[in-house]
Hints:
The chain is α/β, with parallel strands linked by helices. It has two domains: 2-119, NAD(P)-binding Rossmann-like Domain (Rossmann fold, 3-Layer(aba) Sandwich); 123-318, Dihydrodipicolinate Reductase, domain 2 (2-Layer Sandwich). 35% of the residues lie in helices and 27% in strands.
Amino acid sequence: MHFGILGTGRITRRLVADLQSTPSVRVAAIASRDAARATWSGSQYGIANTFEGYQALLDSDLIDAVYIALPPSIHAQWAIAAAQAGKHILCEKPLATSLEEAKSIDAAAKIAGVRWLDATAWRHHPRTTAMHSMVAEGQLGQLRHISAAVSFFEPFQDNDHRRDAVLGGGCLLDLGWYAAGSAIAVAGPARRVFANTLLRDGAVFRLSAMLWFDHDVTATISCGYDTATRKWMEWAGDRASIICDDFTRPWADRLPRIWIHDRAGTVVSHQFSGSQERAMIEALVDGRDLQSFHQQALRTQATLDALIHSANSQQVESVLCE
Length: 322
């Protein structure tokens, strides 16, 4: 699959390397609004073909798919344009800024007959597959509560869109996508939420929230840009819990791991290998079981909508998705 890259920002460099190291993929082109920026990025990443303007890349026969690394406020615009151009879509998280936009992307892809996937790599790691198997096998007993915390202390560069609410910035759409998604992945769709936020220049800088699911399952999530690095979650049942301290992206200096804590105090650790990014890319290329990932993305988007409504109203809000 020949990929074109829409955007030349900070996030681009990391995933371009993952795309280039995936055997079934070639990165064929990159586009920026600025021709000089596109040329410079192409030379940095070893990409031969560069384009001024995103539509010019979409119109090219050089590519089969796009990786969208743009501010969230224009994800829907360019994902829909990519679908209409017949290109498969790998879109940075969040998929969009609202459930309405996310559903529009899904609809456009279905009409065009192209594949789409949100770039939420942890969902594709062999570790995550193993965790789901442990839950399905009853190792946790009855699921009761999920906890998740994702934060990075002011991880900004100049002109970072995450500071600008108009561009879809703020930690809710960014880190909240992981935190809420970690609960939805194991508990299914959230039904109700209550959220509290701290704003800075109109963007959500910290969020704490409670989520309610079917079967009396609950979750607490925290995310923010004013707290030390955290990327952990716990899935807790009445028999045992699974704890992961780096679920969004494994620590660079150690193998991905989890711990199982049972109610008697016994702790068992497990280690895993494999690249979650390459597994994600291969899922899009192969087109295997994408529907479950689509469902997860739409449920997450609906939950983030409800969380911001709750923060604004200071009331419990229902999640409207299915």
